[in-house]
Amino acid sequence: MEIKAIILAAGKGTRMQSETPKVLHKIMDKTLLGYVLDNVKNWVTESFVIVGHHAEEVEKFVKDNYRTAKTVLQSPQLGTGHAVSMVCPFLENYRGQVIILCGDTPLITEKTLKNFVEYHNSNKSDLTVMSTIFENPTNYGRIIRDTDNSLKCIVEEKDAAPEQRAVKEVNAGIYCLNWGKIKDAFSQLSSNNAQNEYYLTDIIEWGKAQKLNVNAYILKNNEEIYGINSRINLAEAAKMMNNRKLNELMTNGVTIVDPECTWISEDTEIGQDTIIYPSTYIEGKNTIGRNCKIGPFAHLRGGVELADNVKIGNFVEVKKSKISSNTNAGHLSYIGDSEVGAHVNIGAGTITANYNPITKVKSKTVLKDNVKIGSNAVLVAPVTVEEGANVGAGGVITKDIKARALAITRAPLKIVENWIKQ
Ligand code: UD1
Ligand code: MG
After folding, report:
1. Where are the CATH 2.160.10.10 domain residues in the chain?
2. For the residues of 190-202, what is the DSSP string, one character each?
């Protein structure tokens, strides 16, 4: 059945203490909202992002990065149920399914969401809510079940009686619904509760009263629904996400010498037997081949493609560059917007000067196979060094260099003897 997504992202995020809207805060160079949208973009037909607080910024982010997603303004923000109701005019005749997510829970995975929808379908459910168990359920809505264990309703902490507060099964804030069956609920919600808000959670009781098939899917790994409300949560979520990634890589045959001080983004792929040395930071989307050696203290900033047997050593920064096999950049270099061939040696301190701060234009550096660049060279882009050419140490290269040529820009060495009078 067709499925669309609604992502709630209009809330204020007061506890972030920030001028930046909460959902645009980042973990490893990707926004919280980006993680949520990436989890659904390949299998839903349309995504609606509910925006409100700092709406223009969130709208711009969505427009620039997720062209198929729509933003819908919620102003004022009267609660999660009110937020979803903003989409009703767009889905008047829609008969498919809708998955509802929050923009501030970046740890949820695509696999879990698909299992959740699968559960909804195999139970022929009209409405399914995701729940999980927390030893400390503070702040979450509690899942209240009937004596026969079937779902009854969700009670928010602020509305809960003491015995309800003791319940450890909580609402994860993720829902799957058959839109045609549930959509009428949104015009019937009331704000008669402790927060005077229209609660999305009330659709459970509404569905039960309509004798619809309402179920809860219990998620075992409660880490996935960890929501971000503060900078402390942000740092914690980043750690969790990083640990998950490092464990996955190690399981697949990548050596991480010190997982305590290595950061690798979710969108980085690394081949078998590559070794990542400590204090390496790899953000954005990258592909690293087999048998590479990265770090210690390396920084890959996204858009990096390394073939097999590549060495990126200490204090080397690489951005948006493609590097072929058996190439070394061992020490203290910056390689940006570059295409580097195989068996290239990039001497210590080499810099690709890819950015002109006056024209604000970024240009490309091309180093063909077997090129050798001496230490401390500056390759002023746009520039191409053809196959097998050598650049002498300290060279400032402003013109293309022909194959197998030597380029040196060095002033002749002058030695003045007896310079210091005795
Ligand atoms: C909500 C649930 C709670 C659940 C928890 C899981 C309700 C009433 N409660 O509580 O049962 O355990 O999530 O994290 O739904 N938002 C809007 N517009 C609004 C209000 C909120 O878009 O008017 C967005 C927020 O930006 C956020 C999401 O909805 O992304 C959840 O809102 P939040 O205020 O964090 O709800 P919780 O109190 O956490
Ligand atoms: Mg919340």
Report:
1. 231-407
2. ---STT----GGG
Best CA proximity match to 318, nearest among 332, 190, 309: 332
- Is the CB of 78 within 6 Å of ligand 1? yes
**CB 321, CB 340: distance < 8 Å:** yes
Tell me the fold of 231-407: UDP N-Acetylglucosamine Acyltransferase; domain 1 (2.160.10)
Distance 150 CA to ligand 1 centre (A): 24
Domain with CATH 3.90.550.10 in the chain: 3-225
What is the dotted CATH code of the domain comprising 3-225? 3.90.550.10
| pTM, rounded to two decimals | 0.93
120 in active site: no
58 lines ligand 1 (CB under 6 A): no
Strands 390-391 and 372-373, how do they pair?
A: parallel
Atom of ligand 1 nearest to the CA of 77: 23
CA of 15 relative to ligand 1 center, distance in Å: 14
Low-confidence ranges of the chain (pLDDT < 70): none
Residue 154 CA: which ligand is closest?
1
Give pLDDT tens digits for 336-382: 999 999 999 999 999 999 999 999 999 999 999 999 999 999 999 99
Q: Which residue has the tokens 């040395």?
A: 277
